[in-house]
Amino acid sequence: MSSTIVSLPDQSTARIPKDNYLTRENGILSWLLTRDHKRIGILYLISMTFFFFIGGALAGLIRLELLTPQSDLMAADTYNKVFTMHGVVMIFFFLVPSVPGALGNFFLPMMIGAKDLALPKMNLASWYLYMAGGLLTLWAMITGGVDTGWTFTTPLSTHYVNTNVITTGLAIFIAGFSSIFTGLNFIVTIHKMRAPGMTWFRLPLFVWANYAASILMVLGTPVLAVAIVLVALERAFGIGVFDPTKGGDPLLFQHLFWFYSHPAVYIMILPGMGVISEVISTFSRKRVFGYTAVAFSSVAIAVFGFFVWAHHMFIMGISNYAVLVFSLLTMLVAVPSAIKIFNWAFTLYKGSITFETPMIYAFGFMGLFTIGGMTGVFLGVSGTDIHLTETYFIVAHFHFVMVGGMLMAFLAGIHFWWPKMTGRMYPEKISQLAAVITFIGFNLTFFPQFILGTLGMPRRYASYPPEFQILNVFSTAGATILGVGYLLPVLYLVWSLKYGRIAGDNPWQATGLEWQTQSPPLTENFAVPPIMDHEAYDYEWLENQKAKEVASVG
Amino acid sequence: MSDSTAVEHGAEAGGHAHSEHPHYLLHHFESVEQQADASGFAMWLFLLTEVMFFSGLFVVYMIYRNWYYPAFVAGSHQLSVLLGGVNSVILITSSLTMALAVWFAERRKKNALLACLVTTLLLGIVFLGIKGLEYKEKFEKHHFPGATFSLESFVNPASDPVAVAAGDKPLPVDTAQRTELFFALYFAMTGMHALHMIIGMGLLVFIIYRARQGAYTTGHTQFVEYFGYYWHFVDIIWIFLFPLLYLINRH
Amino acid sequence: MSEHNESVHSTSSPLAYFGVYVALLVGLGLTILASRINLGNFNVVVVLAIAFVQATLVALYSMHLGRGSVLNKLSVGACIFVLLILVGMVLLETVSRAWGSW
């Protein structure tokens, strides 16, 4: 196989440092009442993995049903509940909190040289709110489910279904506050707690990406909250605000809902893009090309992301003039994302590329996100959207960006920072295999769905015309492979906690302040508060450091 | 835990021999200034989320007022400008007493601080009392949206002294039905506002309790100050709500 | 550090608070008066303008935004911007529905 940059300490003498954030305190309460951002990150990681597999099981049920054209595995109403819960769980309890909750919480303070986030108690509250929302969602699922689609479109959700809309809405409301608190914490931390010398343009791009996502979390999520409140009031009291018979406008709900939910997709993807910046730089041993462009493009995505929400409503009855305006604006929002892809590609150019697992995921991201993003542009063109919306083309589009993009970025990040979080390396060969399996499974699952969409198969239908079956069978087969690809990391990562090789401080020879301390880190992150005296991704500085360093661990 | 957020460090002062810092400086901050800076900024960000939350309701209001103006006029005439105006004065005054409370806290005048806090709380209670009276009247006249909503005051204004006093003309039935939307917004917006006030007053009780113990007159006034911001924010929301709900076409 | 330092105060002076108080009451009176005059569509604009001025005064003085860092002011500005996008573009859409097909 090709070369690797992995540099581990001598395994016969290496030990996990005795004093670290995991060993500093013991007992269940020291975890449940912790203010340590690293422990909270681990709490998030464990809980979101749990919710991911619930959402994944629901996805499995969907794909099983769609093996055959008839609605034979479950009743159509049940199928509606399954895809609704799949969406709700995956979006609100996995994708939105994934990188910020698990990796952002853990590494943001370390990357800027701080001891913790600005508001540690709020951070813990954030996790508890997440858990409360998640458990309430599970409760709603068990006691009857919701069948409106994760989009809660009115007047279906307000007038025509008799399922747990209010409960699920409340759960999402609570989870929304979790998100707001996390974003708020990040913004304050990044502005106010950077170490001496850590100027804005020396920050890792991961920080910029989370900053942009946090702005969206803070300013966008409350609008979702009020949309949910209004749906609840409509259901409970019949106030008429979304009821055409009382003069209400169902589209108004969609305006409020998508005003958040479109920025939400950027909340989901931006932190993933931050991970990709870090991974691509490290595994091509090169600073990110066009740092400023990538940094500003994160903020640009956040800003433009607020302008385009009605492209989810092209066929819903909005005015033609609005369609025109939002379609044009949607073209704009693709530009900063494309800028990032270009910059990552130019980072790779003439870099010393190695193919450790995080890099495999990153390559997967670049290809799949590009496809997903481009199909987003196709959908932004209102003329094509009219034919493709509410078909499997949309489903394929968002799964390409969210699963092929965001989930791959998340896995890249988990693998990249696993040695730092745990002090252990995961087994390289099996992890590379899992990454490749995921890539293959993903393409087999979702590429046929683009074709299905263009052929006209509607989304959210339990049954379909028989001529679509073969593509659905491919898709389900791919889903099985994908499931294996996602299960493997859980298995080998847990295995590595006991049997993985000792990682040492900086197994990837990465720049970044988090790599200049022990693995796992001290509770206070740095024994001596760092002073930042070099640019981001400065591999020469790293060379100088290594030359001065005495190599010993333990 | 060296980075725990314990506020009182009294007995452990020996552990901080390396630097003199106030007991309220949390350990992940480098200085009191940084902590104050960060906390103030965080409070503003939180209030901005509240602004966005209410803005959704204002959007709904705007659309429906635009579409159903006559109905909104008739609905608005059912609200008492006197009671709303009195409430506005009460809330604005409570904002003043709250601001003064913070001022006294910074100057370590505990009794004056307490007086201002208690006054603020009392004014809040009066506000909610008047609001309760208004709500009760609306319930009695069957103006609460839902199954019990009555169109009588709008299709037949002569039956309603308030409508007569406002000079309302009878509305056709379908327009009259739109008043339910007005009242839905009235209850949603003032209800949400009242909820924020109730939460605020709960916190205020806690603050009064702690202020009696001298917590805010020893130099660390952040909590009272930021609560003051929250209270002013609630006031600002009312400043927008009052004209938009109570003063539609009063000429 | 333990002796309180006059220059560290972030509060405005009581004069400013009373000034804002009076301004708010005056604004309230003006708003009620304005609603009694028939200005047609302009009524809403006037009352919103008065409310906006009142809100600005409260923010700047009672909430110490004026004495705070630029960051706080910028953040409020960013929020207002996003709010205007929400309000403006939703209004744009609903109003333009009546304009028909082209």
Q: Give the beta-strand count of chain B.
A: 0
Q: What does the largest sheet of chain A look like?
A: none
Q: Supply the number of structural domains of chain A.
A: 1
Please indicate the percent range of residues of chain B in DSSP E strands (runs of 2 or more): under 5%
CATH architecture of chain B: Up-down Bundle
The two chains with the largest interface, and their residue counts, are:
B-C, 53 and 51 residues
* Helix-residue proportion of chain A: 55-70%
What ranges of chain A have pLDDT less than 50 throughout 5 or more consecutive residues? none
| Rounded radius of gyration of chain B (Å) | 23 Å
Whole-number average pLDDT of chain B?
A: 89
Architecture of chain A, CATH level 2?
Up-down Bundle
- Please write the CATH class name of chain B: Mainly Alpha
What distance separates the N and C termini of chain A?
31 Å
- Main structural class of chain A: mainly alpha
Q: Can you identify the CATH superfamily of chain A? A: Cytochrome c oxidase-like, subunit I domain
Round the mean pLDDT of chain A to the nearest integer and report it: 95
The CATH C-level name of chain A is Mainly Alpha
Run of helices and strands of chain A: HHHHHHHHHHHHHHHHH
Shape of chain A: globular
Oligomer: heterotrimer
